[in-house]
Design a protein that fits this description.
Mean pLDDT: 92
Number of helices: 4
Radius of gyration: 14 Å
Largest sheet: 8 strands, antiparallel, barrel
Structural class: alpha+beta
Length: about 150
């Protein structure tokens, strides 16, 4: 599966961590997205567990990101109320995973709470991005963002 084949959320939720890594490596950055992206945490723990964790995370903690490419920044939508918080800078850069180009979501200079976090995203389908969360240089989690509303 690659950028052109359009990975959907059900496929991503069933993938193992090595499969998600291979998909990320095979994908291109795409354009920096615009608007509100619906977020899904990808735990790579099998379909049932992944779906349950993703639903719980969205309900209680993280709904996604709102990206403003003109300003080069984003805010995460957090809490059950979708509060826009935890700002990051958004730019093209080199991936920590494979050295290829990606879209970097950099919290190091914008967030006291998440200053050690860096996300990287690449486009894996129409309006869909696959992301990796790093704590320092350690990969800790994958996620997906879907930006349908920004392009409808």
């Amino acid at each position: 599966m690659s950028h052109g084949t359009g990975a959907d959320i059900d496929e991503l939720l069933t993938m193992s961590r090595p499969e998600l890594e291979r998909l990320f490596r095979a994908s291109h950055p795409g354009e920096i997205p615009r608007g509100e992206g619906r977020g899904t945490v990808l735990t790579a723990r099998g379909a049932k567990t992944s779906k349950a964790v993703a639903a719980l995370a969205r309900l209680l903690a993280w709904q996604g990101k709102v990206v403003d490419p003109d300003r080069g920044e984003l805010r995460n939508r957090v809490t059950p109320f979708g509060i826009r918080a935890i700002r990051a800078k958004v730019y093209r850069g080199e991936s920590l995973l494979d050295g290829g180009e990606c879209i970097v979501l950099d919290y190091s200079r914008t967030s006291f709470v998440a200053h050690w976090i860096r996300d990287e995203i690449r486009q894996v389908g129409p309006y869909r991005y696959l992301g990796i969360v790093y704590w320092g240089r350690r990969r800790i989690l994958n996620f997906s963002l879907y930006f349908a509303g920004a392009h409808a």
